[in-house]
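[worker-b] picked up task from shared queue
[worker-b] task type: protein-ligand structure
[worker-b] ligand name resolved to nicotinamide-adenine-dinucleotide; SMILES cross-checked against name lookup, match
[worker-b] sequence length check passed
[worker-b] input payload:
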Amino acid sequence: MREHNGPDHQAIVDDGRARIDWVEAHSPVMRGMVRETLGDGSLKGKRIAVVVHLEAKTAFLALLLAEAGADVIAAGSNPQTTHASVVAALRDKGIRVVSDAGGDHTSWEQELLAAADLKPEYIIDDGAELTIRMGMHRPELYKRLKGVSEETTTGTARLHALHEMGKLPFPALTANDARCKHLFDNRYGTGQTTMQAVLAMSGRKVAGARVVVVGYGYVGRGIAEYAKAMNAKVSVIEMDPVRALEAHMDGMRVGTADDVLPDAEFVVTATGGMRAIGAPEFALLSHDVILANAGHHDLEIDVDALGEIAKRETDSRPGIHTFNLDERDIHVLSRGALVNIAGGSGHPVEIMDLTFAVQGLGAHHLVNTPMKPGVHILPKAVDDSIAAAKLNSLGIGLTEGREEQADDLTEWVKGMQL
Amino acid sequence: MGVEDGQARIDWARRSMPISAKAAGQLQAEVASHIGIAVPLDPATASMALWLIEAGFKVSVLGVALAHDTAQGAAELLAILSDAGANICDSRDAFVNAGFDIALDDKGEDLPDGLSRAVVLLAHEATAPDIPIIHLGASSLLQECVSKHGQGQSCVSGFLDITNLQIAGSHVLVIGYDAAGQGIAKYASSYGARVIVCEQDPVKAVKATLDGHQVAVLDVALPKATVVFHALENETCLTLPQLELLPSGAFLCSAGHSQHHSLFDQIGFEVPGKIIRDHVTQHELGSGTNVKLVCNGMPIHSQLGKGFPLEIADVQIAAQLHALATLIAPECDLGPGLHPLPNSIEIELAKAMLEQA
Ligand SMILES: NC(=O)c1ccc[n+]([C@@H]2O[C@H](COP(=O)([O-])OP(=O)(O)OC[C@H]3O[C@@H](n4cnc5c(N)ncnc54)[C@H](O)[C@@H]3O)[C@@H](O)[C@H]2O)c1
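[worker-b] inference finished, payload out:
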């Protein structure tokens, strides 16, 4: 046992270490295939900034990159989600961590600039938060970036926007577009943990509850599916006709805000945009409704506008902020920040095993493959290899197609007299 | 700060307790009766004790060992009850000798002498009391609400909160398919698990298959299960050698009302195990494998400081208050023995729940 930290600090380091060990124990893909691929020597000396919610799962990714020889800089992607003992454990391993727990938006901005000033060559980013700040505040360093691998839907949209405006001088990989990311992380991971966080924070029952989900993308659909499986009565608000129809056929009640908000007990937003629940929607809500957000923006629920019309505001419970409007109390969880991360423990370990496999292999791909500036997708073969490694860890086999099972289209075409 | 926080928790609970609030409003303590309360303490049950004091009852509360709450949280609630005039008993002895004549009791074990009436949440069926006791555990409404959905939601979500893992795609073994087992199986499969049920009663086993679960004997189920929920009311059927059949690292959890008997004691682990995460202890087994015991084998819902979902607590507390009102009504003609919750009350409670739906 190392004692160089002194007993008090060592206890914090050990706590962080135990959390990271737990992650490792439940991350077969990262522990096996990813560790092996990253360890081929190509990452030696490469300076990589990891800017994702700084808790145990992210720490394990950072440690694997460091183990492969990369010079890792770690920063949190949200001031509320940085975990003190995990930071201590990473620093103990010699990783440069620019973030500390207990910060606010001002200290977070400074932390991101500190990460930028350490001159990363590559960024594993979340919401393109560091990428955008480097572009805005450190243009010289921004131009020297060699690649970015981006985690989320919202960050991907930001990178596309940068590219279209001619402001993306390096290749970016959108992890979110990998099937091993959005099919599992956005849908199952967010669906499960958003419902967990909403129920744990509110202490309320789910069976029979009237739950409204705003936005039926991968995230919204996951939330709706988990809520419905637990016997909630789920309604959906959408703008896209195809997704609205999908919700309808999945057995959800689909309607406008006017139709579904007045009798809602829980409203969960997942649009990826801003102000999905704003002033017009507040007018429709009933007393004691609970609002929560699962999208990237803290303003999907327009808490600023809610604050302006509120007569009084109180913290009813930890993480539950109550706005009193005359006859009605409206409760907002985690002040509108991503409820599963700010108010819960984030995605399940097994989900991040897949997502960080995409991110880790994405960084490896950026280092090893010459690519033009612009937005790229992780090659299908890499994406497939992640799912295959996961299935392999579960002892699940796949069939291989035989020749006679394929469509005989070519024979037909040969026979066409054109 | 502490007491203020306890009050905030009670206020939050009361937002979701309209049915019991109404029942409390109708209660009248005609004679100055003294009630002894020995139910798991949480913001909802603390709220009930406060209502009883407001209604004019003298109240004694057993302040130890029966907390749904964390030690700190329970202490805050007890301080509030004490301020309101409750007599807080800090041992079972003190409680039994507090001199109350009506009991509101969790299990109905060792009720004091000199009692005239009692409401018991879950009595042992074989009990033959010499006073009238209304036994709530037999109510089909409460079995559905409390044992099935209350425990199902709290225990399964609690397991996921503790571990930060998924159960989607995993085999979750549920031992016992009474209401508690049904609830665990339901919520585990809602979170994507493949549920296997072990149940000795063929009729309940058929119910499990019709509910969409696989049914198997223990020897077949254990080697597949990465999570085991033990939902038998009384003694466990699990032995140390059987645990060696589990895949190494499997989780062992308890659900059910057996607050006083942990799986740890029942299975007879020889050494305490190593704490590897909050609420998780790892036990090495003879065969070189290990099993992870969650909440030391106590029912998960009772260990996370939360109790049941509030709407569930609401109907359970409303049932207690109505049962109490029945027992103290001058026209009450219930003789000695265990009595079910009167059907008219069940119907009234069910209608009140439908109004909220
Ligand atoms: N909480 C988490 O852990 C987590 C995980 C993954 C993604 N996310 C975030 O969740 C958000 C949604 O991600 P996604 O992958 O589902 O995106 P998506 O683009 O697939 O889905 C968003 C849906 O919302 C609909 N929509 C947009 N504005 C709307 C409005 N005002 N009212 C109703 N519907 C509206 C769109 O038509 C679309 O169908 C993003 O911000 C993403 O970054 C969060």
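[worker-b] attaching auto-annotations
[worker-b] The two ends of chain A are 78 Å apart (CA to CA).
[worker-b] releasing lock
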